Amino acid sequence: MEKQIKLFLEFIQNEKKLSDNTLQSYRRDILQYEDYVEKNRLNYAKVKEDDIRKYLEYLHGIGKKTSTISRSLASIRSFYQFLLRVRKIKKDPTEKIESPKIEKKAPSVLTAKEVELLLEQPKDIDLKGTRDKAMLEFAYATGMRVTEIISLNIDDVNLEEGYVVCKNGNKQRNIPLGTISLNALKEYITDARKVMIKNEKEQSLFVNVNGGRLTRQGFWKIVKYYKEQAHIEKDITPHVLRHSFATHLLQNGADLKSIQTMLGHSDISSTQVYMQFQDEGLKNTYRKAHPRA
Questions:
Q1: Residue 176 DSSP one-character state
Q2: Is the model's pLDDT at 285 over the cut of 60?
Q3: Given this model, what pLDDT does residue 92 score?
Q4: Looking at the 3D structure of the chain, how many domains does it have?
Q5: Burial profile 108-124: b = 16 or more Cβ within 10 angstroms, e = fewer
Q6: 148 and 44 in one domain?
Q7: Per-residue pLDDT tens for 215-261?
Q8: CATH number where 10 lies
Q9: Burial class for 228, CB neighbours closer than 10 Å (0-12, 13-18, 19+)
């Protein structure tokens, strides 16, 4: 099984051009499944539908969320479809198993006033403050995921045209930048970044105090710090800024399809969760819709 897992992961990496995050999720799911198969002395190539169901029940029993179980099933299904493709099995044991239904909860969002309060906290009186201001403004202006933001290179931003090119695996989308975000970004790149980087060959857009690429953990700590500085009671994560971006656009009249494109949702049903916040009658363009454009 170990050999087939290795071949499977190589296959999805080379053929599907997945992002590193997605690839790591597949790896974790399959390795956890392998551990279960070995502990229960099952033959991975001969498992039946009932064995897969028992595994899903096992995941539920150890407290895994429905979304995690659904993702694990998708990973295992992909694994067995690969085994079918390379003729290691004759039938996919996951074929008739439906994914557990995931209840789409209302996303946690900030009010426009809370966002303004948060974004007022970083002061551009030093290098770190200039970077933090640019980064928080950027996160709210684009609605990009944390991983997407920290993966950006300096060449991914077009300051003249005012947009950023977001690459996620083999997918790419262009996202406009509002005036406030663009000005903060220009100030950071011109006044702070070139001083913070230790190597002129450094490509990362947002860098840490050591001049290297900022990490997810670093981004989270920055958001948490300014949330406390703003004395906001709500739990704020970088993803809450993404939710707030989408919600505020929708409330101010941006159409759902445009928001789907900017968020990078492959399925519009993921974007429709924001519909509950929509105010009817307002139909404006992005620059009119975004509070800080």
A1: E
A2: no
A3: 94
A4: 2
A5: ebbeeebbebbbebbeb
A6: no
A7: 999 999 999 999 999 999 888 887 888 888 888 887 777 777 877 87
A8: 1.10.150.130
A9: exposed
To which H or E segment does residue 163 belong?
A: strand 163-168
Domain shared by 44 and 132, yes or no:
no
Structure-token pair, residue 160: 């003249």
pLDDT at residue number 190: 94
Cβ neighbours, 10 Å, residue 234: 13
Helix (H, G, I), strand (E, B) or coil at 167: strand
- Tens of pLDDT, residue by residue over 93-132, are 999 998 887 665 656 788 889 999 999 999 988 999 999 9
Pair of tokens at residue 23: 């690839």
Q: Kindly state whether residues 204 and 277 are assigned to the same domain.
A: yes
Specify the length of the chain in residues.
Answer: 293
In tens, the pLDDT along 127-151 reads 999 999 999 999 998 988 898 999 9
Q: Which two structure tokens, joined as six digits, stand for 86?
A: 């390379």
The answer to whether residue 96 is domain-embedded is no
Place of tokens 């074929």: 95
> CA 123, 125, 129, 131 torsion: positive or negative?
positive
* Strands (E) located in the chain: 157-158, 163-168, 171-176
Range of 225's domain?
A: 112-289
* 116 occurs within a structural domain: yes
Query: If you average pLDDT over every residue of the chain, what do you get?
Result: 87
